[in-house]
Write a structure and sequence with these properties.
Blueprint (H helix, E strand, L loop, with lengths): L17 H46 L8 H11 L15 H6 L1 H13 L18
């Protein structure tokens, strides 16, 4: 193999002749550079594939999450337990009960129903649904 032609000189003080220098530049370095480029292309392809597979796996994890198995009654209890008793709920997306609307699609529907019915002082929510929900 050409790539092993000068291997005995690697790591030494050997000075190649002009012919050997041209041979190293034209053959060995060019071949190595092409192979490195091919490897980089393959790495990019594999990283894209990995990213797609990781996204898909995350979606499957969400699909089988335990929260999806909770009944409507349990979700209502969780939602109502998160409502403050002494004041109106905050309108922050990082605080309950608004945070629950990002976790459970059912939370969005519940929030719409509560807003319409005025239950537990939730009428102060400036809510705009993200998608069409069916009840």
């Amino acid at each position: 193999m050409e790539s092993f032609m000068f291997q005995q000189h690697l790591g030494t003080n050997y000075v190649p002749s002009l012919v050997e220098k041209r041979q190293i530049n034209n053959t060995l370095l060019e071949t190595s550079s092409k192979e490195i480029a091919n490897i980089d292309t393959e790495i990019d392809r594999l990283q894209k594939r990995r990213s797609i597979l990781c996204d898909l796996a995350e979606q499957y994890r969400a699909l089988v999450s335990p929260a999806r198995r909770l009944s409507r009654d349990v979700l209502e209890e969780i939602f109502f337990a998160c409502l403050p008793a002494d004041r109106n709920p905050c309108m922050s997306a990082t605080g309950a009960p608004m945070l629950l609307t990002h976790v459970f699609v059912y939370g969005e529907a519940l929030l719409i129903l509560l807003h319409a019915s005025g239950k537990r002082s939730t009428s102060s929510f400036p809510y705009q649904p993200r998608r069409n929900l069916r009840f």
